[in-house]
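so ive been stuck on this for like two days lol. basically i have the seq below and the ligand is adenosine-5'-triphosphate, smiles is in there too. i just want the complex predicted, nothing fancy, no docking runs or whatever. if the output looks off dont worry ill sanity check it later, just need somthing to start from for the group meeting slides
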Amino acid sequence: MGQKRARDPKAQVAEANKRKKAVKSDASSSDNHVSVGVEDLNWKEVAMPDRMEDAEGFFGLEEIEGVDIIKQSDGGVHFKAKSGKPTQSIIKPPSEDDGEEWGGFSDEDSSKKSPATEKTPAATEVKEDKKSKKDKKKEQNKAKKEEQKSKEQKPKEQKPKESKPAQNKNIKAGLSFAALDDVEEDDGVDVSAWDGLNLSPETFTALSKMKFSSPSAIQKASIPAILDGHDVVGKASTGSGKTLAFGIPIIEHYLDKRGKQGEQSDESEKNKTPIALILSPTRELAHQLGKHIGELIANSPDTNARIALITGGMSIQKQQRQLATADIVVGTPGRVWEILSTGTGLIRKMQKIQFLVVDEADRLLSEGHFKEVEDILNALDKHQAGDIADADQEEEEEAPSHRQTLVFSATFHKDLQQKLAGKSRWSGDDMLDNKASMEYLLKKLNFREEKPKFIDVNPESQMAIGLKEGIVECPAMEKDLYLYSVLLYYPKNRTLVFTNSISAVRRITQLLQALQLPVFALHSNMAQKARLRSIERFSSPTANPSSILVATDVAARGLDIKGINCVIHYHVPRTADAYVHRSGRTARAGESGKSILICAPDEVVGVARLAGKIHAKKAKKADGADGPSKKVPLESLDIDRRVVSRLRPRMALAKRITDSTIAKEKVNTEDNWLRAAADDLGVEYDSDEFDQSKGRGRGRGGGRERRDKEASETSKSEMAGLRAELKQHLAQRVNIGVSEKYLTAGRIDIDALLRGEGNDAFLGHLDPLSF
Ligand SMILES: Nc1ncnc2c1ncn2[C@@H]1O[C@H](COP(=O)(O)OP(=O)(O)OP(=O)(O)O)[C@@H](O)[C@H]1O
C-alpha cells in the first residue's frame, strides 16, 4: 500500500466521499471499532513525489492503517481503530530529509533530478500463457458485462462495489472534511467501445472513471497486438494517446501476474522484479508518463502497481530502494544506466522485465542520446547469457528474448532531425517512409520478433487531425509587432509561443508583460520552482483563458496541457521534428488547434524545406503521380496592415521599456560580477575606467554596446513617463474603422459594439483570419 500519485482530485474526493459514507454506516453498526486519539495512532511517513513536495503549503503525508474517521455532528472528527486496513493521510510539517526536489524540465537528462511514485505489491516473474490469459479475459469481460447490466438496473446499490481498498486513499492538501460533503460521486462513462480489446474489469472501471469512452486509433491497434505478445513499433500523431497504448497492456500484464500469484508477502515483495522499463528522452516526459500511467492505476480497483521514477535528483540509494519494489520503472537513460551499472543485482532483475518501452524513440535513438540507451540494451540482452559478467556462456546468448520491445513516437524518420537551415540537402525521402524507419530501428534495437508489428495510424500525415497550420510573413525587424497582432487577433486562446533561444524567451516575456498580457516564461536556465510555477499558472483551469507561455524547445515534446488552442513559432524551428512536436502541444486528444509560423524573409528557405518534409505525402497525392513532389504551402494568413500599423506606437513604447530593463539588468549583472572579481583581487573597481579600457562604444560591435548602455541609462523618471504613456495607449481600444462617417453610414453595428461583442482589443469590425 502507499500513496497514489497525481490522482484526479475530483475522483479522489469522490472516493473519499464513498469511504466516508462507508465509515458512517460502519460507525453506526460496528462493534469491532475502538475510539482512539489522533496522537495515539501509529502514523507512518509516506514518501512524497517531488512534484508534490514543491506544492506550496503541502509538506508531507503520513498514513495509518486500520483506522476509520468518524465525523461528528458538531463538525469535528474522531478516529476508530478496527481490524480492516484503511488508510488516512494528514498534512505534516517538513522534515529535514524532505529536501529532494524534482529538477523540472530539460531537453536532456542531466541525471540531476527526480521523484518517485510508489504503490503497492506485485510479484515475481511468470511467463505468459496466452491461451489461458485469453480465456480468463473472456470470463472477466462476461463478468464485467453482467456487472454493467445490473448497474444499469440498480445504479444506487452498485456504488459501494467500486470502492477501492482504503489502503490507497490519500487526501490532498487543503481538502477539508467539510468539503467532502459537497462533492457528489462521479459515475464514469460508458466504455463499451473498448469491448473487444480483451481488457480486464479493473481497466474498464479505470477507463470509465477517467472518462475515456473509446480507444484512440493507436490504442485500438496496438493494445491487442501487445497483449498477443508482439513487438510493436507504433506511430501516431502527437496527443493521440500513445502513453496508454502501451500503458494499458503493461497494467493488464500486472493484473494477470498478480491474479496468478496472489498478494505477496513482505519477503517476496523485496525480491520481486519489475515488469516494464519505460525509457523517455527527458525528465519532463518521464514524469508525465509516470503520472499518466499512475492515474490509470489509481482509478483501477485493487490495482496497486508501483511506479519508480528514475530521472535524477534523488539519491541513488533511494532510487535503488524504489527500484527494488517497483513494478514499472520509468526513467531517462542517463540516470537509469547510472543506477543499473552501480547497483548490485539490479541488472539481473531488470533482465526479467516483460516490456521494454522506448518512448519518443526517434529522439532517444538519435546521436547524442543513444550511448546510454545502448548500454542499457546491452546489459538487458546479456541476461540471455545468464550472467552479464560471464563472457564464456556465448551459447545462451543466442537464446530468444522473452521481452517485448515497444517503440512509440509521432516521428520516426531520421531526416526529420536534419537541420532545416544551412546547406545540408534533404535526401528526398518521404519522411514517413515506413521501410526506412523500420530498418533504422531494427539496426538499433534487438526485437524479439524478426519483424515487429509496425502500426502506423497516420500514414498520410503525422500532424494531428484537428491542427490547422498557418504562416504569417513579416519584415525581420517587425516580428514582435506581428506576434502581438496575432495574439490580439486570438484573444481568448491559451497560446504557447516557441523561440529558439533563452534570451528571446526572456525578452518576449518582458515585452508582452509590458503590454499587459498574461504571460509566463519557460526555459532550462530558470530555477526549477520558477519553471513549475510557470507551467502551473499557465495550465491551471482557473488561469486567464488568454494565458501565454513563451518557451524554448524544452517544452516541445511531451507537455500535455489541456486547452492550448494555439502554438506560435516566433522562430522557425531548427528541425522538422521540432516543428511536429511543438505544434503537437495543441490539437491533442481529438481537439482542434492552430499552429502559426511567424516568418521573416531570411527564414523562407527553412520554411520551404519544412513544408516539403512535413507535407511530402500530401504533395505527392496532390500531384496524383510519382513525379517530383510539390511543396504544400502552409496557409498564408493575411493580417490587416491597418491593425499592425495602429499597434505600432504601443509596441515602440513597450520595446523601449523592455530594452531599458534588460540593459539595466545586464549592466547590473556585469557590474556585480566585476565588483566581486575586483574584491577577490583586492583592487578597486571603477566602471568608467573599465569601459574605457574595454573600448566600450568604439569599433566593431560598439554600436550595440552603446545602445545597450544608453538604454540602461534611461532615468527612472523617463521610464515612468514611458510607462504612463503606454498605459494610456493600452487603456484605449484600437480604432480600426469607427469614424463619424462610418457610424452615420450605418457600417457599424452600434448595439453589438455597446454589448462589448467582438474582439475587445479593437474598436470597429475586425475581419477574422479565417483560420
Ligand atoms: N482513449 C482516450 N480518450 C480520450 N482521451 C485520451 C484517451 N487516451 C488518452 N487520452 C488523453 O489524450 C491526451 C494525450 O495523450 P498522450 O500524452 O498519451 O499523447 P501522445 O500521443 O503520447 O502525445 P505526444 O506524442 O505529444 O507525447 C492525454 O491528456 C490523455 O489523457
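The first strand starts at residue 34 and ends at 36. The pocket of adenosine-5'-triphosphate is lined by residues 212, 215-216, 219, 236, 238-244, 410, 558, 560, 584, 588-589 (CB under 6 Å).
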